[in-house]
Design a protein that fits this description.
The protein is mainly alpha-helical. 66% of the residues lie in helices and 0% in strands. The protein is built from eight helices and no strands. α3 packs parallel to α6. It is globular and about 40 Å long. The two termini are 30 Å apart.
Length: 151
Amino acid sequence: MEQRLSYFDIGQAPLKALLSVEAAITRSGLDLQLLHLVKMRVSQMNGCAYCLDMHSKDLRAGGESEQRIYLLDAWRESTFFSPRERAALAWAEAVTNVTDGHVPDAVYDTARAEFSEVDLVNLTMAVVTINAWNRLNVAFRMPAGSYQPPK
């Protein structure tokens, strides 16, 4: 698969805005490992190899176990995820799949039990932005493998 174009070199103004949203989410106070789990799960759903490579490396760099990374796609059947992580993953899936009947009340209620209103908005923005990155990377065939986590 060959990269179609480098959107990083072309879309400067919109990319700066998206990167600014990412920076705000990072500073929001939400746990970074939780954010990477959510971003990896959404990237699994969207088939984004570049983002899967990135977030698996970020998770490992943050100390995440290989077992949890491997079982992320089957988080519902696994006992390795906390109630807060489960709520975040269910929320991320529902927000990503809004065409499947919108976000169910039960998923919202579970998420609200685990997250404050501010945290839930920030978590939702994380889901929105990873969906945007996934679509950019899939559309322009960004090759996976080159990303290295910050030190």
